[in-house]
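Working notes for the structural subgroup meeting. M.R. asked for a predicted model of this chain before we commit to crystallization trials. I am recording the input and output together here so anyone reviewing the notebook later can reproduce the run.

Input as submitted:
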Amino acid sequence: MSAPAVVAHTKRVCTLYKKALRNLEAWYDRRYIYRYHATILRARFDQHKAERDPAVIAQLVADGEREVFEKQHFQPKKFPMSPGGVAFEREVIPPDWVLDYWHPLEKAQYPEYFARREKRKEEYVTWWEKQYGKATATDSHHH
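Returned structure, recorded in C-alpha cell form:
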C-alpha cells in the first residue's frame, strides 16, 4: 500500500473502532458491562493487526463496517452539543453585521469597542483592496 492509502486505511480502521465503541456504549449503560464488551472488541481488532494481505484487510474492514451498521442501537447516544444532540445550535451566535444596524445611542454605550471595530473594518477594506483590487462601479451593480 502507498503512504496515502495506508493513512486512509488507518483512519478508516480507527473510525470503525470508535463507532463500534460508541455503539457498545449505547447498548450497555452499566460501565462495567460496557468495559467488558469494549475489551472483547479490542481483542477482535488486535487479532488482525499483523495482517498484511490488502484483500483480506479490505474484507475485514468491510465486514466490520457492515456489522456495526447491522448492530447499531435504535437510539444512539449523542453528546448534547454535537449534531443531533439536545443542545446542538441552541444558542444562536448572531453574525457580525448585526452590529452595523445598532442605533447610534446603543453604540454610544460602548465607545471603545465601536471605535476599534470601525478601525478594524477600515483595515479589512484596505487588506481586501490590496488582495483583490478596488471595487469598480460595474462590480456594485448587478443586472
